[in-house]
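Troubleshooting: if your tokenizer reports a length mismatch, compare your output against this known-good record of 318 residues.
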Amino acid sequence: MAVLPGDVHVLVTEKPGKLKLWSRDGIRELPGAPTVDYGGQGGLGDVVLAPDFDKSGVFYLSWAEAGTGETRGAVVARGQFAKGPIPKIETLDVIWRQSPKVTGRGHYSHRMVVSPDRKYLYIASGDRQKLQPAQDPKSDLGKVIRLPINAAGKPSGPAEQVSLGHRNILGLQFDAKGRLWDLEHGPAGGDELNLVKPGQNYGWPVVSEGNHYSGEKIPRHSTRPDFAAPALSWNPVIAPGGMIFYSGKMWPEWKGQLLIGAMSPTAIVRVAIDGEKAREVARYPMDKRIRAVAEAPDGSLYLLEDKAGGRLLRLSRK
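Known-good structure output:
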């Protein structure tokens, strides 16, 4: 989900391959969306606006792409909307492909964020449920990737790995200090929030704060101080759907804190940052799974519910 400048329109991606535009006049499907490999966790993914979107119309879109022999992988494209009252996709060019493509339909991650200096597009690349490639520097799987971009938002150099040892990143955001944080689904227990630093190894699948779904134990981070430990972990899990750092315009007391969409239990989770650590400070129950959170220009919140019948909600303060 992405809120367009002016708080009039919201772009929403749906896994089967639909890019929709919500406005106060209704909902319309936009033409020009890519063909996706839909199934499991795969399909159309994240949508992120370029910092100068109001002038350039540039945005980034991610999805799951089919390969050969039942293999699949995430891709990221740079798109541009034609100018006009209603966005219309004018161009859509793939600028990054997850490598290697593998079998299965899980853990694509493909969340994105543009760096505050506008020089890089950061991409979350999940382990694709293959585990060990997260520790293999020759594989993109289980990594945070950054792609250099120029002033037009186009690639200006090869993609490079920032960090490794990640499982399934579904949140990727910079804080006000310019630090990058990721939010990951753990195995059975052990969802985690990480402060991402270049060159760091976050340990998956060697260590975790959870265990395999089979019941097999995984050593904890405390047993391997050579791996970077999470700033915060959850067990029982929250099954995170996405996150934002809140600006504080409508709720000043929340300024600089994380607002996380949770799917199990269904909630909004509020997290405060303390240096390089974090702590949960509040949890607000919701009716359904929250897949994405976005902030409107006035500081109100948009929440996107998951699954059939899911709604786009707007939360504001009276």
